[in-house]
Specification:
This protein is mainly beta. It has no helices and 11 strands.
Length: 115
């Protein structure tokens, strides 16, 4: 049974930081590219960051470059998103995705940036 379970979301003030985690199970994690997407109310889901496998190469949306860092730990089947210098426009539900021969999605975690 495939599972992707996100955690770490919450309410943070502008300029603050959060670290999202996505714990994976039920598939060969190390073979999958892992991504974080986000969807704000009334907007389409957008790709935030990807970490490839096995290269570990990372790519980012222009809107988060220099502020967010994606990383993965294949030993514990977990992908992270470190988010710094958060802005109100980062407010969204953040989703973890695994992609290789199939696409798998988590249930999402809410991130709210507000004073």
């Amino acid at each position: 049974q495939v599972q992707l379970v996100e955690s770490g979301g919450g309410l943070v003030q502008p300029g603050g930081s959060l670290r999202l985690s996505c714990a994976a199970s039920g598939f060969t994690f190390s073979r999958y590219a892992m991504s974080w997407y986000r969807q704000a109310p009334g907007k389409e889901r957008e790709l935030v960051a990807t970490v490839a496998s096995p290269s570990g190469r990372t790519t980012y949306a222009d809107s988060v470059k220099g502020r967010f860092t994606i990383s993965r730990d294949n030993g514990i089947n977990t992908v992270y998103l470190q988010m710094n210098s958060l802005k109100p426009e980062d407010t969204a539900v953040y989703y973890c995705q695994a992609r290789w021969r199939a696409d798998y999605w988590g249930q999402g975690t809410q991130v709210t940036v507000s004073s």
